[in-house]
Structures are given as structure tokens and as C-alpha cells.
Design goal:
The complex is a heterodimer of chains A (about 110) and B (about 120). With about 110 residues, chain A is mainly β. In chain A, strands 1, 3, 4, 7, 8 and 9 form a six-stranded mixed sheet that branches. A three-stranded antiparallel sheet of chain A has the order 2-6-5, with no helix packed on it. Chain A contains no helices and nine strands. In chain B, the strands form two sheets. In chain B, strands 2, 4, 5, 6, 9, 10 and 11 form a seven-stranded mixed sheet that branches. In chain B, a hairpin with a 4-residue loop joins strand 7 and strand 8. Chain B is globular, with a radius of gyration of 13 Å. Classes of the chains: A mainly beta (about 110), B mainly beta (about 120). Chains A and B meet through strand 3, strand 7 and strand 8 of A and strand 5, strand 9 and strand 10 of B.
Chain lengths: ~110, ~120
């Protein structure tokens, strides 16, 4: 099972919006509404930011939003802040007989 | 609140065995899936596999099948990841996390495994 495809990097200035894509197949992203997004700061454990395509856990700012179209999911960070600079990973459930698969990660730089 | 506490960092030699742990201090260990995730130095997250402690059902990602063993001890709410013969390429940070349909909502702090001669 191949990893999901994310751009290696993304950037934006404070206050701007940036969107990160995550492309899979009909066996993972396209087949299930179980796409999650994670934020990871250096030296820290990943943190769940989005689950089930577009739901935010308690405590995650509403500046973080997400969607899905076909085999591609997207994470949008609006009103960029310095603390948003981190690595972002997507993952998708692939059904009972397929393991969960991660994207390669996107390094978000706040200029 | 779920809290996953992992065992401490390990330094091992190639060929040695190792078992690291992930203790769930919450109250629902038997009814949650626990996944293991590898992060090699400077690299991304890789899903290794998952266990459902309630019935010890285990699923491995193809890349890790036969390379590691996932297990759990319900009596002490602890999941394990073990190797029978470590390689230098096993050097990585290993995380456990509670999983629900791919959603990894609670993470352990990570266990750094260093394999070097």
C-alpha cells in the first residue's frame, strides 16, 4: 500500500491562508470519510488537528479547516500564526483489510 | 482522560532483542485500538500496525509484517512492540496511539530506540 502524496513544503506570511493537499486512491481517501490531519512540532509527538475529513477535536482553533474531493483531501490554515510552523501529516483509513496509511508530510513555514 | 505512557529510551546493539511498552492509564484499554507508529530520524510518520486488546486481534502494515511483533497484556493495560533481532535501520522514535478508524487521537510521548554497534 503506497503512502499518500503530500507536497514536501508550503509557506505563507502571517495572516495569510495556506492549503496543503493529500492525494490517495479510491481504496483509502476516496473510499472512506476517515481522513485525519496531524501537526508535529520538532521534538514533539504528533497532535490530531482534524478527523473524519473535517471535524476538529476540542481545543483546535477554527483557523484549521479541511475538506475532501474524490481521492484528494485538503487542510487549510487561515490567519497564519508563527506557532503554526510545523510538519503536517494526513492519514486515511483503508478498510478492514488495509492498514492505515500516512502521507509523507508537509513542512509549513510561516514567513 | 486517556494517557499513554511509553517506556524509556533504549540503546541496543545489532542482533539484540527488545520489547518496548505503552501503558494506558485510562479506563477503556480493552475497548480501544492501540496503534504503533515509527518515525525514523528526520523522516515522516509510518503506520506499523494495530492491536485490539479486547480480543488480541492484530493487523500489521505490509512493510512491518514479520519484522516486529505487537502484543498486549489486558491485565495491566499495556501494549508492546518487540523485535527479536534489531538492525541499525530500526533506529527511530516509536509512538503508540489510540486509534479509531485511522484517527490517532491520544499519543504516547514516544520511545527512542537507537541501534548501534
Amino acid at each position: 500500500q503506497s503512502a499518500l502524496t503530500q507536497p514536501p513544503s508550503a509557506s505563507g506570511s502571517p495572516g495569510q491562508s495556506v492549503t496543503i493537499s493529500c492525494t490517495g486512491t479510491s481504496s483509502d481517501i476516496g473510499g472512506y470519510n476517515y481522513v485525519s490531519w496531524y501537526q508535529q512540532h520538532p521534538g514533539k509527538a504528533p497532535k490530531l488537528m482534524i478527523y473524519e475529513v473535517n471535524k476538529r477535536p476540542s481545543g483546535v482553533p477554527d483557523r484549521f479547516s479541511a475538506s475532501k474531493s474524490g481521492n484528494t483531501a485538503s487542510l487549510t490554515v487561515s490567519g497564519l500564526q508563527a506557532e503554526d510552523e510545523a510538519d503536517y501529516y494526513c492519514n486515511s483509513y483503508g478498510g478492514h483489510n488495509n492498514p492505515v496509511v500516512f502521507g509523507g508530510g508537509t513542512k509549513l513555514t510561516v514567513l | 482522560e486517556v494517557q499513554l505512557v511509553q517506556s524509556g529510551a533504549e540503546v541496543k546493539k545489532p542482533g539484540e532483542s527488545l520489547k518496548i511498552s505503552c501503558k494506558d492509564s485510562g479506563y477503556s484499554f480493552n475497548s480501544n485500538f492501540i496503534a504503533w507508529v515509527r518515525q525514523m530520524p528526520g523522516k515522516g510518520l509510518e503506520y506499523m500496525g494495530v492491536i485490539y486488546p479486547g480480543d488480541s486481534n492484530i493487523r500489521y502494515s505490509p512493510s512491518f509484517q514479520g519484522q516486529v511483533t505487537i502484543s498486549a497484556d489486558k491485565s495491566i493495560s499495556t501494549a508492546y512492540l518487540q523485535w527479536s533481532s534489531l538492525k541499525a535501520s530500526d533506529t527511530a522514535m516509536y509512538y503508540c496511539a489510540r486509534e479509531y478508524y485511522g484517527r490517532l487521537d491520544w499519543w504516547g510521548q514516544g520511545t527512542l530506540v537507537t541501534v548501534s554497534s
